[in-house]
Amino acid sequence: MPWKETATSNHGGFLGFIVHTVIRFFQFVLGLTVIGLYGVDLNAARIAHKYTDGKWVYAVVVGTLAALTALVFMIPFVKTYRAFPWDIIMFFLWIVVFGIFGNLFIKENAEGDAGIMRMKNAVWVDLANMLLWLISSAFGLFMFFKNRGHMSLHTGRAKV
């Protein structure tokens, strides 16, 4: 089937295609999870007409970017290895989210507080997101140099 050959050749064969799709699926699901975990507090602040903390807004924005990116990059015919710089940017955005909320909640004692416990769990979801984006950026970088076809790095026109 020609569509299968085209889809899998962009990701390093059939096994690479499966790994790529599974990673992107988990990035999508965990992005939505972050939106839900942090959105609860944003919604509570909205209902109470209180200040919306920018840290929570940032986490929801990064979760949204991650979910949308993963959804677009799951399309089999898109050569996502060419977009590895965006994967690296997403990795750094997740580092910031993990750093902010890890600093706030990892050492916090929940003492039966469901909100604190939810945020402690959210920190580990942030870590999982960060690691998934690291893996996908490394895979994309590897595939980029593998599929360059021995062309020059800057213009791609000259044979190397």
Helix/strand class:
mainly alpha
Residue-averaged pLDDT, rounded?
85
Give the overall silhouette. elongated
The helical percent reads over 70%
Helices, strands, pairings?
Elements (H helix, E strand, L loop, with lengths): L1 H8 L3 H35 L6 H20 L10 H22 L8 H33 L14
Helix pairs in contact: 1-2, 2-3, 2-5, 3-4, 4-5
How would you describe the overall organization of this protein?
The two termini are 32 Å apart. Helix content is 74%, strand content 0%. The chain has helices at 2-9, 13-47, 54-73, 84-105, 114-146. The chain has 160 residues and is mainly α. α2 (13-47) runs antiparallel to α3. 24% of the residues are buried. The chain contains 5 helices and no strands.
Would you kindly provide a brief summary of this structure?
This protein has 160 residues and is an all-alpha fold. It contains 5 helices and no strands.
